[in-house]
Amino acid sequence: MTNSITDIFLNIVCPSLGTIMASAMFAAPITSLKKAISRGSLEELNPTPWAFMTGNCLGWVAYSVVTQNMFVLVSNAPGLILSIWLNMGAAKLQYQEMYRSRYHGDNSLFLRNEEEEDSNEFSEDANSSGSHTYIPVPSCTSHEHWVIGIITIWMIVLTVACFGPLSDVERANLIGIVVNVNLVVFYGAPLSTIKNVLRSRNSVSIHRKTLATGFLNSFFWLAYGIALMDMVILVPNASGFLLSVIQIILCIAFPRSDIEYRVEHGVEEQLVNDANESQDEGSTSGGSHVEML
């Protein structure tokens, strides 16, 4: 009876909960990208891991097909679809930033003269007067290079796995090794975060939501990997679980300060916006002037 309950927990409950946690972890950047799109700039947001997220989910989907593992498929298929949207958003924002830097040099999206009433008049004046110099913008952003490169590598790997003289076990091992190499990038991000926390003695750079979902995700998949004795699942999730534990310890040892918490959650930015609105109202109505220190 005890063995039956343990088997159910390890082989059904753990991967089911791991699937939920994986979806939550993949969805963590949605809010950040939405904010970036609304302001028209990535700013400090690093989209490179999203390119490797595509490769990671694509590899696990392929691994699930070879091993006929439905849990692995369900946990990574939504992440693969979501990563496409994340990468498209990042590429659009990078192109906007390149456009602004080439044609205006500041945060304005379009270059206009005060005399120009629309973009057509601007184009005609620029071409006829020669007052504006046309500088070609690259057709491919740096993020698109990452995505194309990763997808190309996976196409080569999957071609070898499908059409090469390999057994099912060898195919699974090949895909499993490559997908674990892909995970190195995801592990690199927590390592850099841990370094920053140790240097600043403040854990504000650790995103609590991502840490919580990553901790639970790696725990459930580690238990499932142990139950199957599948090293492809076990090894990377053991590493992820260890990194999560280290970050939890750092959060306890180096709690984040109130000022950095406010900055992280945009409280300071909201205060500035409110003050600017008050200043605008005061200047139009003859009211007092608000000065931000």
Q: Your description of this structure?
A:
- This protein is an all-alpha fold and about 290 residues long.
- The chain has eleven helices and no strands.
- It has helices at about 1-25, 30-40, 50-65, 70-105, 120-130, 140-165, 170-200, 210-230, 230-255, 260-265, 265-285.
- α1 runs parallel beside α4, α3 (about 50-65) runs antiparallel to α4 and α8 (about 210-230) packs antiparallel against α9 (about 230-255).
- The protein is globular.
- Mean pLDDT is about 80; it is low at about 105-130, about 265-270 and about 280-293.
What is the averaged pLDDT score? 78
Number of helices: 11
Summarize the helix and strand pattern as letters.
HHHHHHHHHHH
Radius of gyration: 25 Å
What form results from the Cα inertia axes?
globular
Describe the biggest sheet?
none
- Tell me the distance between the termini: 68 Å
Q: What share of the residues lie within helices?
A: over 70%
Q: Which structural class do you get from the secondary structure elements? A: mainly alpha
Estimated share of beta-strand residues: under 5%
* Uncertain parts: 106-130, 267-272, 278-293
Number of strands: 0
Keywords, please?
11 helices; single chain; 293 residues; mainly alpha; 77% helix; globular; disordered C terminus
